[in-house]
Write a structure and sequence with these properties.
Number of domains: 1
CATH superfamily: Vaccinia Virus protein VP39
Bound molecules: S-adenosyl-L-homocysteine, 3,4-dihydroxybenzoic acid, magnesium ion
Oligomer: single chain
Shape: globular
Structural class: alpha/beta
Distance between the termini: 49 Å
CATH class: Alpha Beta
Order of helices and strands: HHHEHEHEHEHEHEE
Radius of gyration: 17 Å
CATH topology: Rossmann fold
Strand content: 15-25%
CATH architecture: 3-Layer(aba) Sandwich
Length: about 210
């Protein structure tokens, strides 16, 4: 079929998903997990950002079955490590098995529990790349932790910051969109962040990419 979207065109042109990633997606579907992993274009953006910044310590908030984690792990420098936070034990278990299957389990640690609790326990750790992709209502809190756990030059990426325009009218008591709108306002005006917003899913969603300033 002729591709008529940019994301489809790019996936067709660049996107050879290997057997491991394919099997991970198939197993997740079979086990009833939602297929809300990063789309191809965002997976690639994460890999480019990690490689070009030579990130060594990555923090991910929201593991699901580990799809984005495996992509991040494959972009890491030798000796690099990822800590990924997940509240749902079923997701964390499947992710753990996937890290073994992908051969990246030596580089990845899954921390099970509410991310805010895990983040508090990461006191004293330092990360040079943070990917925020868990419950949207908590994005403002995750940003505070991301800033606490990084230094100048670090990258902070946040997925789903547009939600088909849902962030424009969050006043209807939608905690997810309210959280995202608050996150966007804070990022946009923050003196220690310089931020670009990248459309994903053919403009139906977006991802913010921030560099931490001195
Ligand atoms: N980054 C993944 C997708 C994550 S989906 C990928 O692209 O492959 C969001 C995940 O966040 C889900 O697995 C969900 O269980 C988890 N989550 C939701 N609320 C959370 C919380 N309070 N703490 C930690 N994880 C949470
Ligand atoms: C959805 C997509 C995401 O990337 C996410 O993190 C959560 C939800 C969604 O399409 O519903
Ligand atoms: Mg997401």
């Amino acid at each position: 079929m002729q591709e008529t979207t940019l994301s489809g065109y790019v996936r067709t042109l660049y996107g050879v998903e290997d057997d491991v990633l394919q099997a991970m997606r198939a197993d997740a579907e079979e086990q009833g997990l939602p297929a809300i992993q990063v789309p191809f274009e965002l997976g690639r953006l994460l890999q480019v950002l990690v490689m070009q910044s030579r990130a060594r310590r990555i923090l991910e908030i929201g593991t699901l079955f580990g799809y984005s984690t495996v992509l991040l792990a494959r972009a890491l420098q030798p000796g690099g490590r990822i800590t990924t936070l997940e509240v749902t034990p079923k997701h964390a278990d499947l992710a753990g098995a996937n890290f073994q299957r992908a051969g990246v389990d030596d580089r990845v640690e899954v921390v099970v529990g509410p991310a805010v609790d895990s983040l508090r326990r990461l006191e004293g750790h330092e990360f040079d790349f943070v990917f925020i992709d868990a419950d949207k209502a908590s994005y403002p809190v995750y940003l505070e932790h991301a800033l606490r756990l990084t230094r100048a030059g670090a990258t902070i990426v946040a997925d789903n910051i547009w939600r088909d325009g849902g962030v424009l009218s969050p006043a209807v008591g939608n905690a997810d969109n309210e959280g995202l709108a608050q996150f966007n306002r804070t990022v946009a005006s923050h003196s220690r962040l310089l931020t670009a917003v990248i459309p994903t899913r053919d403009g139906r969603d977006g991802t913010s990419v921030s560099v931490v300033l001195p």
